[in-house]
Design a protein that fits this description.
Layout lengths: L1 H7 L15 H15 L3 H14 L4 H13 L15 H19 L19 E6 L4 E8 L2 E9 L2 E2 L16 E4 L4 E2 L10 E4 L5 H5 L8 E3 L11 E3 L3 E2 L2 H8 L8 E5 L7 H22 L3 H5 L2 E6 L5 H12 L5 E12 L6 E12 L3 E13 L2 E9 L1
Parallel strand pairs: 1-11, 4-9, 8-10, 12-16
Antiparallel strand pairs: 1-2, 2-3, 5-11, 6-7, 7-8, 13-14, 14-15, 15-16
Helix pairs in contact: 1-2, 2-3, 2-5, 3-4
Length: 386
C-alpha cells in the first residue's frame, strides 16, 4: 500500500473545522480511511470505505481503495490501484482525485477575502470564486457589503486545464462571468446530472481577445457517477449532484458572479487602496458627464477604448454631438459591483445601474465597464450594456 500511504503525507490529519456541505463528510471519511491504512489498521480502513460506499455506491475512488484493501488481505500491495488489469489511465485519474481531496481536507477555512471581490452590489446575495489549481469552488455571502465565506466544494475542470482560448480546446476559461440561465434536470440528458447553470463565456474581454467557444456551464454528474477526476470536463466546472443542488439554492440567475482563476489570491491592503482610487475615478467620470464637461468626461476613456463595435474616435464624436444639445444632465449610479480580472493585471470589471436624465431624454440601463490602470491612472477600455 505504498502509494496510498504516500498520499497521507499530504495531510496532517489535525482535521480543520470547515463549513458543512453534502460532500464534506465524504472527504473526511476518505481521509480517515487512508489514515487507518497508514497506521496499518486495514480492517478499520475497510469499514470506513464501506460506510462511504453505502452512502455513495458510485464513488469510484472509494471503490478503488476498497479493492486495494481486499487485495491486501492476500498479498502485499506496492501501489495504488493494484488490482490486476486495472486501466492505468483510470487509476491515474483516481490518484489525482485522491490528491485533490486530501489537500482540500488539509486546508483551513478561509479567513481572508478573495482579491477578486472588491465590491459586491447589494443585489448580489452571493458570489462564486473557482480556483482551478485546487479543484475547489468557493461560495461567499454578501453580508452588509462584505464577502463572508459560506462553503467550498470539490470540482472538476477542463481536461487540458484552464485559460480557454478556442472552441474545442478542452480548457476552462479564466475571467469574470455571470450565471445567465438555469437548466433543470428534465431539460437535459443524464450526462449533466441534477442540472446546469450556463455562464457568460465568452464575455466582452474574451471576444476582444478573439477567444471563442460556447457552452461553459456549472453542472452535475451522470446518475452512475458520484464525482469526476480534477481534469475531466470539456471546459465546464463540474460538481457532484448533491453539491450542485446545494450551490444552486444560492445562485441568482443574471446576478451571481462566477470568477474563475488559476490560483486564488487574497485581499491585501494594497488592494483596498487601489479599490478606493478606482471608486474615486468612477465618481469623477460620473461628475464630469453630469457637468457637461465633455472633454474631461472623454479623458476617462483609453485610446484603445471600444464598445465592441465602436472605437474611441467615433464614440467621442457622437458624445460631443449629443452633449452640445443638452442644457442639463443628471447621472446617478447604483448597485455598483467591482471585480478585479483574473490573469489580467490592473483590470477590473465594473457593473452598475445607470439613471440618466437630461432636458430631452431619460433612460435607465444596466451598464458594464472594464477599467484598466495605465501609467498610474484608471481608464475605461470597454463600455456597454450588460
Amino acid at each position: 500500500m505504498r502509494h496510498i500511504a504516500s498520499l497521507l503525507l499530504i495531510a496532517s490529519f489535525a482535521l480543520p473545522a470547515l463549513a458543512e456541505t453534502p460532500s464534506r463528510d465524504l472527504e473526511l471519511g476518505l481521509a480517515k480511511s487512508l489514515q487507518a491504512v497508514r497506521e496499518n489498521r486495514l480492517d478499520v480502513a475497510l469499514n470506513e470505505v464501506d460506510s462511504l460506499l453505502k452512502l455513495n455506491p458510485n464513488f469510484k475512488l472509494a471503490q478503488l481503495v476498497r479493492g486495494d484493501l481486499l487485495l491486501a488481505r492476500s498479498k502485499p500491495i506496492g501501489d495504488f490501484g493494484a488490482a490486476p488489469n486495472a486501466p492505468r489511465d483510470r487509476v491515474q485519474d483516481l490518484r489525482e482525485e485522491a490528491n485533490a481531496r486530501l489537500q482540500r481536507v488539509q486546508q483551513q477555512q478561509p479567513i481572508a477575502v478573495p482579491k477578486y471581490l472588491w465590491q459586491l452590489s447589494p443585489k448580489q446575495r452571493y458570489a462564486v470564486v473557482v480556483d482551478t489549481s485546487k479543484s475547489t469552488l468557493y461560495l461567499y455571502e454578501n453580508v452588509k457589503g462584505e464577502p463572508r465565506y459560506v462553503a467550498d466544494f470539490y470540482i472538476s475542470v477542463g481536461k487540458k486545464g484552464s485559460d480557454k482560448a478556442i472552441e474545442g480546446d478542452q480548457k476552462t476559461p479564466l475571467g469574470v462571468y455571470f450565471v445567465n440561465q438555469h437548466l433543470t434536470k428534465d431539460k437535459l440528458t443524464d450526462f449533466y446530472g441534477s442540472g446546469a447553470y450556463p455562464i457568460s463565456y465568452p464575455n466582452e474581454w474574451d471576444k476582444r481577445l478573439g477567444r471563442n467557444g460556447h457552452g461553459i456551464w456549472l453542472h452535475g454528474t451522470p446518475s452512475d457517477t458520484y464525482s469526476r477526476p480534477p481534469l475531466a470536463s470539456n471546459g465546464c466546472v463540474v460538481l457532484n449532484n448533491d453539491d450542485l443542488t446545494h450551490l444552486g439554492s444560492h445562485i441568482q440567475v443574471g446576478v451571481t458572479p462566477v470568477i474563475i482563476t488559476r490560483k486564488m489570491d487574497w485581499m491585501a491592503d494594497d488592494d483596498l487602496s487601489e479599490r478606493d482610487a478606482l471608486l474615486k475615478s468612477i465618481e469623477q467620470w460620473r461628475n464630469d458627464w453630469s457637468s457637461r464637461d465633455t472633454e474631461s468626461y472623454l479623458s476617462h476613456y483609453a485610446k484603445d477604448f471600444s464598445t465592441g463595435s465602436v472605437t474611441l474616435p467615433a464614440f467621442a464624436q457622437q458624445k460631443r454631438l449629443v452633449n452640445s444639445g443638452k442644457t442639463w444632465i443628471k447621472v446617478k449610479l447604483s448597485d455598483l459591483s467591482v471585480f478585479p480580472y483574473p490573469n489580467q493585471p490592473d483590470m477590473v470589471v465594473v457593473n452598475f445601474e445607470q439613471d440618466y436624465e437630461s432636458n430631452n431624454l431619460s433612460n435607465r440601463m444596466h451598464k458594464r465597464q472594464y477599467w484598466m490602470k495605465r501609467d498610474g491612472r484608471w481608464q475605461i477600455v470597454y463600455e456597454g450594456a450588460a
